[in-house]
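Hi R.,

Here's the chain you asked about this morning:
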Amino acid sequence: MAKMWAGRTSGETSKIADDFNSSISFDKKMFKQDVCGSIAHASMLAYKGIITKSEGELIIDGLTQILSDIESGDLVISNDAEDIHMFIESVLTERIGDVGKKLHTARSRNDQVALDLRLYMREQSNLVVEKLKTLIEVIIEKAEENQDAIMPGYTHLQRAQPITFAHHLLAYAMMFIRDVSRVNDAVLRMNYSPLGSCAMSGTTYPTDRDFVAKKLGFDGVTMNSIDGVSDRDYCIELLSSFSTIMMHLSRFSEEIILWQSWEFKFIELDDAFSTGSSIMPQKKNPDMAELVRGKTGRVYGDLMAILTTLKGIPLAYNKDMQEDKECIFDGVETVIKCLDVFAPMIKTLKPLKENMYKACAKGFINATDLADYLAKKGMPFRSAYKIVGTIVADCIKKGVTLDEYSLEDYKTYSDVFESDLYQEISMETCIKKRISKGSTGYESVKEQLNYVKDFLKQN
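And here is the predicted structure, written out as tokens:
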């Protein structure tokens, strides 16, 4: 395919150089954005009288047909083209003649690709947000079903205090709410049109950049033409947001993997989201969760790759910046795939409530409540803490739980202990007594559920 930039050079590059220089293999996914951006640009050129109205109509009709043909499969994007921009312009010129060559008036590939990438990532980012909301909805549903499921809460991966399964799930809902906010914030900063910046210094034509920006749904235009073509901050911001999403999914995956194991057996994953072993017939492996955990590093790598690529580039555009696309495309596609599998995996998992409850009794996780029992009867908390710690040590020696420890034994440590302590340290009471805002208490969990539901309604 003839080089559009031939002139200063012959345009004759070696096959090796062509392949190395080409980006069509990955930037062709922006064909829709490229056509839509070109239609908006042609409309502006005709509106401003830079090209005639009939020329504008001919170009727009040609571009509209090209988009239709690509989407239907009647036009196959050729990998012989240097990039998607050159491919579409070349096809347009072949179809409508020399008028097609006027499309590139007052435009450079530099601002064209910057526009296409913003349009593409705006669309993909909005898709990520919708998938995050779907996951949050699934978490709400699962949490509502399990408000009475009591399980051990952990610190340092040691049983710490009793919580409800609903409370634990809602912690992830809060993380994903922040993720929605982060992605939306990045999109807000990205949503300014660079088209009209041209190569890097603007143009001598009387263009109307705001006209194009409005047609394409931007909030405005980039205010500095050099920054307009060289800015990739939004790629960094989005990949950072995607990395945080993946970190949250990975933490959730790690817990699913632990909970599915025989050592915990708090949940049972649906067969549709598990695999077996090729040699061990008893195995049911949480491969989807493990893959999500593994793909987290991949998205981190995309973020580090683009940061490293951009760190030494002088203004304005440099060919290094072609490396931005594979990073950002891979990052967003990986997040979307992980969210696609994660929501139904959570929706179909079965909590094993009895196992969760049994695990509570074995870890002395009501010890804090026993100390609070003494403190509420007037004993300084630090003194209560020491007494309960000593009691726990004695329970371990005797092989009993705090619930099984005799009142006679309790009274050897303090006369404050009475038979009402057993009710106070029951798992249900431990949950019910948590009345602080945001706690695992039943009323607090309902409040959290309502908070998350309100967020979804408002976003």
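One quick note: Residues 110-148+164-206+217-253+276-345 form a domain with the Fumarase C; Chain A, domain 2 fold (CATH 1.20.200.10).

Cheers,
M.
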